[in-house]
Structures are given as structure tokens and as C-alpha cells.
Amino acid sequence: MSKFVAVVVMMFCLLSAGSLIAKDKSANGVYRPTLSTSAKKYLREFQLGKATQDEVIQYVGMPDKSNTIGGSEFLTYSIAPKTSSGVIEYTYELKEGVVVNVTYLNSGNFFGVTQRESATELQQSP
Question: What pLDDT is stored for residue 18 in this prediction?
Fold first, then answer.
């Protein structure tokens, strides 16, 4: 009986310890997308106008590419494995340090089909 109680207590401690570990998601819902991330869901739920550049870098990491064009800064993250022949990437557009759009690009990675989605377009559609 005492072994059973000890196992239950240990499992409870392990489960509650997860809340003490660094979070993978910011208060504004920023996290690093993966190959298994649903792009449309990620883009629909992204907090445009709230997430900051520091938050993106902290939770997504350092960008693979960055550009500044016409007053906007673009941070691009490649998600596809390096051995892949296609491109899967998320690009965060920032104005004055705040994310105003996120785009998803899947270019010919599996079937030669290109898919491009935009958070602003998805969030404005019904």
C-alpha cells in the first residue's frame, strides 16, 4: 500500500513539475511552428498587433533570414528539413516592433504544389 501511495505522489510531482519548466508559448500565443503545425490554425489564432519582435525571437528563435522593406521588418523562419527539396517557411512582418502579419509558404515540398496563407486574410474572412 505504501509503495502505491509513493508512486501516486511521485506521479503527481512529475505532472505538476511541468508547470515549473519554461513555457513553449508566450502569453500572446507565440510559439515555434513545426512540420506538424496546422498553418491555418496557427495563422488564425496568432495575436496580430499584440506580439512583439522580442517575443517572436524569444519563442520562435533567431530568424533564418531578415529584411527591411518600406518601413516593415520581415523575419523568416525555415521549417522544412535541410534535406528537403521544397520550402516551408513562416514570415513575420513587424511594424514599429509589433507583428502585423504572418505568412506561411509551402513551396513544392511534397507534391509540387505551392500553398501561401496570410494571417490577416484568414482572420478577416468569416
Answer: 42
